[in-house]
Amino acid sequence: MKNPAELLQEFEAYISAEKGLARNTLEAYRSDLKIFLEYLKKLKIPVEKVVQDTVSGYLWDRKTGGMAAASIYRNMESIRQFYRFLVLEHDLPDDPTMNLPLPKTAALLPEFLSAPEIAALISSVPYKTKNQLRFRAMLEVMYSSGLRISEVLTLKKSDPDPTLGIIKVKGKGSKERIVPLNKTAAMFVEKHILSSGAAISDDGYLFAGAGGRPLSRVSFWKRLKKNAAAAGILKNVKPHSIRHSFASHLLEGGADLRSIQEMLGHSSISTTQIYTHIDRRRLKDIHKKFHPRSR
């Protein structure tokens, strides 16, 4: 069998073609497997000689080292996919992950903001300069359409259609979807494009940074934290908090789960069920209104 570095390289090409995974997921797999392969190297265990106890021991080391349950689950999935690849493509006789028990993971939800908090956050962003206007437009689009930060950063100039009130989004696995864009967000997008002028080419990134390249996640996150503090929001606000708030507010307003699933770009409704948060008071109100014994 080839050396681990060559196998990892082949695996990346294989899983990219077969699974159509997003770049961030591929990078996570690569990172997880590099650490696992280093672990095997230290123990002097060849890749093809790994058994279930080897994998279990590695995951236990990760757990005792303080790794979160969700990260352990991702590590396990990376190793599982790697060995499925070896069985299929390199005739490995046994898959050591075949009967590996799945760890229990808590369905942790990101911090979400109330409607007044979202309004305060967005309103805290002035739009006197080009950079301020760009950031304000990004926030408006994120909350209007529930986009992931990676999706916002890679939007092209041609993706939004302010006149029709829609935006074309390329999500995980390069899957495209069309999402509504409200009037306020559409207005700020148009203002941003007009302000940017020739700095954004027709086929360029909508929210381009220096040299026409996409802005970094880190720079966006730092700006978001700064504005959240300025708005008096004490919660740990992250880019994903805005997406979660979008879904939560739709659900609380009476939108059905299937529509939210489509707008978020989830392939499975179960993901949407975990991701969204239903206001407990709203559930009680529904119960009181519709249950015959509660009237």
How do the strands and helices of this protein lay out in sequence?
Blueprint: H1 4-19, H2 23-43, H3 52-64, H4 69-89, H5 115-123, H6 130-145, H7 149-153, E1 160-161, E2 166-170, E3 176-180, H8 183-196, H9 217-230, H10 239-252, H11 257-264, H12 269-275, H13 280-290
Antiparallel strand pairs: 1-2, 2-3
Descriptive notes:
- With 295 residues, the protein is mostly helical.
- The protein has two domains: 4-89, Tyrosine recombinase, N-terminal domain (DNA polymerase, domain 1, Orthogonal Bundle), CATH 1.10.150; 115-284, Intergrase catalytic core (hpI Integrase, Chain A, Orthogonal Bundle).
- It has 13 helices and three strands.
- The protein has helices at residues 4-19, 23-43, 52-64, 69-89, 115-123, 130-145, 149-153, 183-196, 217-230, 239-252, 257-264, 269-275, 280-290; strands spanning 160-161, 166-170, 176-180.
- Strands 1-2-3 form a three-stranded antiparallel β-sheet, with no helix packed on it.
- A hairpin with a 5-residue loop joins strand 2 and strand 3.
- The chain is globular.
- The mean pLDDT is 87.
Highlighted features:
mainly alpha; 3-stranded antiparallel β-sheet; 295 residues; 3 strands; hpI Integrase, Chain A
How would you summarize what this structure contains?
By secondary structure, this protein is mainly alpha-helical. The chain has helices at 4-19, 23-43, 52-64, 69-89, 115-123, 130-145, 149-153, 183-196, 217-230, 239-252, 257-264, 269-275, 280-290, and strands spanning 160-161, 166-170, 176-180.
